[in-house]
Design brief:
By secondary structure, the chain is mostly helical. The protein contains one helix and no strands. The radius of gyration is 25 Å and the shape is rod-shaped.
Length: 57
């Protein structure tokens, strides 16, 4: 009888672990996307500065 009371707890823990894993993957993907977007913006700013500097010469 002790094993049957443990199964619902085990199922809930596995379910919560799967949800936590999914949220962790989503968080890491969004973080990577934001970092790549920021790097792209920084590179575009540098390119614009260089073009402005060459145009003013």
């Amino acid at each position: 009888m002790g094993m049957f009371t443990f199964f619902p707890f085990l199922i809930i823990m596995v379910y919560l672990a799967i949800l936590a894993g999914i949220f962790l993957l989503i968080y890491s993907w969004v973080n990577k996307f934001i970092n790549l977007r920021q790097e792209q913006n920084d590179l575009l700013r540098e390119i614009i500065k260089k073009l402005d500097h060459k145009a003013s010469e």
